[in-house]
From TrEMBL, chains A, B:
Nucleus found in the keyword field: yes
Catalyzed reactions: diphosphate + H2O = 2 phosphate + H(+)
TM segment ranges: none
Cofactor: Mg(2+)
Family: Belongs to the HAD-like hydrolase superfamily.
Protein name per UniProt: Phospholysine phosphohistidine inorganic pyrophosphate phosphatase
CDD domains tied to this protein: HAD_PPase
Compartment annotation: Cytoplasm; Nucleus
Key words of the record: Cytoplasm, Hydrolase, Magnesium, Metal-binding, Nucleus
Keyword Magnesium: yes
Single GO molecular function: metal ion binding
Length: 267, 267
């Protein structure tokens, strides 16, 4: 058995979802081979497990329903996602959002006052990223004395079954530039968000490993919180990630199943 | 008569167009009061005149037709615009563009080989800034060994008769971020572009004044080329421009007519 120093003294795993458990797509997506079995093995081993996603195209309830249909044994409480975290932030600060998000995410904000908006919340709006909707969000921001832009993640792009798509981060940059503001990111790699996922996982950072396909959001974000982090060679992984100028994972693994094999061997 | 040091020893004027001559809009736009008369007075005075625009929603021919319909005595040779400059650059470097531009600009690229694209040219595509079109441009770029993104200007936003609109610069930032590249800007405030406008004006930088409504693209760009530059309080001008951290115009004027009054008094 290979000796993998990074795999020692682990009590909990934070898993990214899209690109690790499944490849998303308009058709509902397809599971990545071995991932459903890997989730079952994690649970059977007694390791703690929490999914930490930047997914903002569905409520957590619908997201979990989709994962279960794909064969993943996951409950809503096992998912940390940006929208509920954003709702807490909005309430704490008395902010009333204009939403530029996916239609299916809107119910997450049902309890939030959206009259007379004093901030813009940007998610992965997909088909709602229209010229008209972007101009509307821009005009609201530029009309505020101090524009407040809250972005649910800052990913560059992601992979769907029919190809790569621009992610919310690209649109965030467009609005940041137009309004000369800096967005507040709720989602990976924001430290506060990853710390809330870690709190829900219930183990200290030094006993947790993050496993993700995004070198910056998953790996870089987790390492900044003191966790170890693996990059899988599935999802949006590209060979050029292995030369990233700033972020170096604790290890590369071919996929989640391989990571789980190694971790379980070291328990 | 007020003594205005900035108005001395002038032999030529570079004028921005939208927000200085007229306010643009889907309805064709409306002239700014006094501007058509001001253009006539410049020409009658013997001062040289060149329009320098980042307009990329029409060919120069159609753009000039629109200006003439609004009462401006302007010919095609008096307009410096990004698309013809971009065509020269594409030919020089053997680049074959994928175009994400306004439908009405496409004829400017009629002579350019667009098969098997090895770069993306981005203009103010307006309604063509769809989710699908942005994803298509992104996928082409991210698939190139060394992505080349050419942006026709980098304005943040502009004013139309029905409100502010995101300009090409915002979409440029989105693609720059997603692909981790830096766009090459053809248009104001790029020095090379302003120098080509100055060459077409036919006077040295120190004898030319730029008049524009954009503190960065017009004023900052012209000053970097050694020209004097005025900001008009029309078009997209906002009072906060007067506190810009980096750019300070040689003077503010209420509108083009006032600028021309003062300049002609100093001839």
């Amino acid at each position: 058995m290979a000796t993998c120093g990074w795999a020692r003294a682990v009590r909990g795993l934070l898993l990214d979802v899209s690109g690790v458990l499944y490849d998303s797509g308009a058709d509902g997506g397809v599971p990545i081979a071995g991932s459903a079995e890997a989730v079952r093995r994690i649970k059977a081993s007694g390791l703690k497990l929490q999914l930490c996603t930047n997914e903002t195209q569905a409520t957590r309830e619908n997201f979990v329903r989709k994962l279960r249909a794909l064969g993943f044994d996951i409950s809503v409480a096992e998912v940390t996602a940006p929208a509920p975290a954003a709702c807490r932030l909005l309430k704490e600060r008395g902010l009333r959002p204009h939403l530029l998000v996916h239609d299916d995410l809107v119910p997450e904000f049902a309890e939030v006052d959206k009259t007379n908006p004093n901030c813009v919340v940007l998610g992965d709006a997909a088909e709602n990223f229209t010229y008209a909707n972007l101009n509307e969000a821009f005009r609201l921001l530029i009309g505020m004395e101090k524009p407040v832009l809250i972005s649910l993640g800052k990913g560059r792009y992601y992979k769907e079954t029919d190809g790569l798509k621009l992610d919310v981060g690209a649109y965030m940059k467009a609005l940041e530039y137009a309004c000369d503001v800096q967005a507040e990111v709720v989602g990976k790699p924001a430290k506060k968000f990853l710390e809330s996922a870690l709190a829900e996982l219930g183990v200290p950072a030094e006993q947790a490993i993050m496993i993700g396909d995004d070198i910056v959001s998953d790996v870089g974000g987790a390492q900044q919180c003191g966790m170890r982090a693996l990059q899988v060679r599935t999802g949006k992984y590209r060979p050029s990630d292995e030369n990233h100028p700033e972020v170096k994972p604790d290890a590369y693994v071919n996929n989640l199943a391989e990571a789980v094999d190694i971790i379980l061997q070291h328990l």
